[in-house]
Every structure is written in structure tokens, then in C-alpha cells.
Fold each of these.
Amino acid sequence: MPNTKEPRAIFSRFRPSRRSLAGFLVGVLCGGGIGLTMLIHINPPPTERTEQVFIYGTLLNPYIRNIACLCQTSSTPVTLPHYEKVGRNIVPQENSVVYGAVIQVSSRELRRLDRYEKVPRKYRREQITIAGDDYWVYRLNF
């Protein structure tokens, strides 16, 4: 008995979205083939970086910082006087310094750092003054 059903296409349920189709076309037109579409990243418009954060732990690593705030920031080495690093925290201590760095972020990137540091469950964000300038710093909750 002959088969009366029409053959189904293998990808009959695949319906590409406009975004994936546009990315594919850009990749092909740029000469990169399909592999290039995976590397296309549309950067959001630059924002004003008005917040300064003193970092002293894992955020000193630029790769972790990039993942934590979804941004690329440069850091400036700074020392925090009258504090001591104890484990993953800093505590006030005379005649001590904490070596770290300062980064500048936007308010949106600061909220992303809050999520990374698990504010307010694990860490809290406090304002400190270093050489007359105000900075945010993350300290462990007790």
C-alpha cells in the first residue's frame, strides 16, 4: 500500500525570530559565516559613571569584575588607611592599611555589584572617605 502522507520537513517547527535572523544575516554579510554571529555583542549606550567603589577582594580581578557588573572598568590602586583585611572583610584597625583599588561605575552597574555581593544578606554597602573623597565599600554583615 503506497504512503499517502506528505513527508514532513525536518525543521518544520523551527521558526527563527527576527533578532536571530538579523544576526545571521549580519554575520553572513560581514564575511564571518555563522560563527561570527555568536560573537556579535551590541553594546548599550555609554552611561555616566558617577559612583566610586573601593574594591579589595575578588573584584580586583578584571574578569570577575566584568562578569559581576557587566561592564569593563579600569581600576586605580589605592590604600585604605585605618582598616585591616580579616578574611573576606575589612574592619577598623589603627596603624593598618588595606591595599585595594577604586573603580568608577554607573548607578546601574552599582546595583549589579550589589547583587553580586548579595546585599543585604551577605554584605552591606557603606560610604567611606579616603583622602577627602567618598567611596562605596562592601563589608560583611554580622
Amino acid sequence: MLFFTAADAASYPSSWDWRTLPVLAAKAGALQPGADPQGDRMETRERLEIRLWVQKAIALYESSGKDELLRQIADPQGQFIREKRYIFALDIDGKLLAHPFSKPLVGMNLLDLKDCDGKTFVRRMIATSRNRGYGFADYKWRSLDSKEEYQKTVFFERVDQIVLCGGIYANSTPFETI
């Protein structure tokens, strides 16, 4: 089983495009169900699915514009919510533009927001999106319905001045096909 982490992505040439990942992964046999050997990262299939979900948000932005995209993301009953999974949007400076559940944080700059281990994960995501345009971030976070800490993996991709982010908590139910 192949697993791609943010560290793995950094080792690929800058010309490598994540849009080719589904084809490469299928050829390598990485789309078979399985668990991460460490048990704390999303498996390759889930990474592909969350990437496609973010691309769906990008397609909405390209077809309907920024205002409609942010309205859809902010809707807690909208198309960008699946159980404990959701898409949120930041601007290229780290300001939260839309989130379906953390409405009080919308408009705030989150660059210095820290995860459960004290790491400024938003700052890393923004830096990567500025330099590369996309990537994965692994960090510890509390799930929406508990105070327990979970490993979370987020895929993010920049489109114009927006960074769209979608993720999944480790050991949660499998992601449904979009």
C-alpha cells in the first residue's frame, strides 16, 4: 500500500501535478482498501477522494464565482458537508473566508492558530499554497462533536486568492464516493 504525506509531496519535482495522482495510484495498485501502517493518516483512497471533493469546490468557483462558492461552503446543510468532513476556505493571507461550523472565526486571520501540539498548521498550509499551490497537512485537532484529540489530514489547493481545504479525521468512517 502506498501512502502519500506532505513530506512525500515535497520530494516530488515541482512540475509534478496532483491531477495525475488517481492514474498513478491506480497503476501502482494503491487504490486497494487498507489501513495506514501507523494508523494515524488517511489512506490513499481517502486522499484521492478528498482531493476530488476540493476540485468540485474549485469547479463551482470557476462556474459560479467566489460569492456562490463561499455561500455554499458556509451552509451547514450544503453540498460540502459529509458527516464530520467539510470544506472550508481561507484567503492567501490566512483569513478564514467561509466555514460551515466555525462562524465566529470567519473574517479572522488564522495564521497563528495552533493545533493540539502547538504547531501553526494554517501558516504551513498558506506557505505551501503560495509556493506550490496545493498540498496535504497533517495535524492534531478536536473533532466537531467531542473534546478528544484526533489526527486530521487536510488537502488544500489554491485557486486565485482562495485556499480551499477539505479533510478527514483518522479512524473515522470511510469517505463516501462523491
Amino acid sequence: MNWMKRYQSNDRVGKTGSQGGEDGVIAIILQALGITGGWCVEIGAWDGEFLSNTISLVRKGFYCLMVEGDEGRSKALFRNAAKAEYGGRITPVNAMVGPGNVGELMKMVDGYMAVISIDIDGGEEDILAALPVKFAVVVMEWNDKGNKHHWSVLEAADRCGYIPVHATNSNVIFVLAGFYPTFCEGMAKIEESLG
């Protein structure tokens, strides 16, 4: 998984804004998969911009459902979502997310399910297991404030049909198992083009 590290932040993907360069890695994974549009979801979105794993996708034309449970952060999320530069492509929601309501939230997503980022400071694996839909790429926090829950995140993703392709100190990125051969072929072409 470490060979993806070069894509965390470099000239090829541009300046990244996420915590550990995850948005740069996501961009390369989507390129390898041939995915150029659709929906992304960010659960635990803060203000929609700060350390976001998905805002760079919105800037590239993706639509995004951004969910934040904290009321103060949600107010900033709603303000930022209304910015003209995002062209109305962000659907902001103030809600605490858990296995019992994630299905209802997913009904707000109308289109191809490209990426979901789940960062709720514990319980990410429960939300993934409760999702009624599959995403091509999943980003899940696995190290919250030093409280590591690596194995539970990896096991949940495996049970849900995802394969890990990259990890940072805070997050692990997965690809849907059915897309893994396409991902490998696409990455080989990208690597070959770099020389």
C-alpha cells in the first residue's frame, strides 16, 4: 500500500487539502478506475472544506452529500456549501449519523456512488456495514486521537467487499473488490506513463 504515498501530495494531483493527502490518493484511484463524475459522501464533514477528503472532487464537478453532526460546524458547512464556486453541487446536512439512519441519508444521493469518506471518531465500521449501497472507493478513519481501531475497520471493510489500497496515519482507503482488477490495470498504466 505504501507505493501510493507518492500521490498524497505532488504536482500530478495538485495541492491536497485533506489531513494526510487522502484527496490526492483518491484522485489517482478514480483516474485508474476511469471514474470522472458522480456522487461522493462525506460523513463527518466539519465545515465542508477543512481537512476534507471530498471537496477537491466537488471542485472537479462531482456532487457531494456532506453530513456534520456538530451544530456549530454545520452552520459553517451550510455557508460554505452555498459558495458560488461549488455550483450548488454540495448538499449539506446537519445530523448525527449511525447505522440506524445512514440508509435514509443515502436516499439523498441520486447518481453514481463514487466515493464515501467516513470520519465520526469511532464506529465507522458500523456505518459501512449499514450502508444500503456500494461505493467504488471508501475512506475510513482508523486512528482517532491515538485510539487505534485498525483491525475492526479492516475486518468490516473485508466483510463488505472492499480491498485496502492505501493507508495514512488517520485513514485507510479501500476499493470495491469487483473494481480491484480495473484499479490494478489502471495504476499500471499510470505508473508506466510516469516512467
Amino acid sequence: MRAFSCVFVKKDGKLRLLDEPGYRAFVQTLGDGEEVTCAFTDGSLDSVRSHIRSQKANNYLWGHVYVEMAKHTGHSPDDLHDAMCERFLPNEHKRVEFYNHMSGEQLTVETDGRRSSKQSPTDFYDFVEQIRAFALEFLGVETQDPDPEYWRRSKRRRKDVAA
């Protein structure tokens, strides 16, 4: 299941969605009949502002970059995300061991903790730019530049990452 969150502000007695384009892009990635769970929390204005910025970046990745790649490859955005995490995020394979005290049986499970949700905004920016470069160079899929407000870095830094 994908994670998606959006921020609302109460105005005139109604909740107003702050990132409607991001919300619409997310909805486009859903399959017919796919269920979505919504949870509401409150937060300080500072945490809301930082969340909006990172959520916009997340929405750009899922609602634009993966959608364009999916059109070209036929893979789902979820499968593309798994592949991009495997390709670009550090290997975090872990071994979790269980021991049944009753039978003495041991069970070892290999896990891969690579998750883009664990990344700082700076690392997430680099991750998205690596995906965009891969899409362009390997697949021939060009993605439009995001709104400059999505990122915290200058255009000069974006060019350095792509090089």
C-alpha cells in the first residue's frame, strides 16, 4: 500500500485542500475499486509547511515521474518505485532471527529496509533526480521540471546531480 497524505486548512467552516494538483495526481495512480484510508491529525504551522513541501515532492514523484514511466514501460507505479528503491537507495538488508522457546526451532527472515519515506528532504531530492535521469537516459522518457517550490535546492544543484 502506498502512503499519501495531504494538508487541509479550515476556512469558513470547511476544510480546504492545500495541494489539489498533488491530490489529483495521486488519485490518477489508483486502480478502479482500490481502497484508500484517510487519517486526520493536527499540527503546528511550521510542521504543516515543511510537510507540504515534502509532500509536494512526493506527489511529483508518484503523480508525474512514475506515471510517465508507467506509460512507457507498462509497469505499475508501485513496481517502478520498488525497482528505483532497489537501484538507487543504499542496501539495508537485515537478518531478523526468531527462536521458538517451545520447540527450539529457529527462523531467519531476510528483510530489505530500503524506503524513500526514511529519506531527508535533501536525500529525497537526489533520489527523484536520479530517477528522472534514469528515465531520460535509459527509457527515453522526459519528465517536466517540478515547480521550484517543491525543492529546497537551486537549479544549479539540480544540474550537478544530473551530471
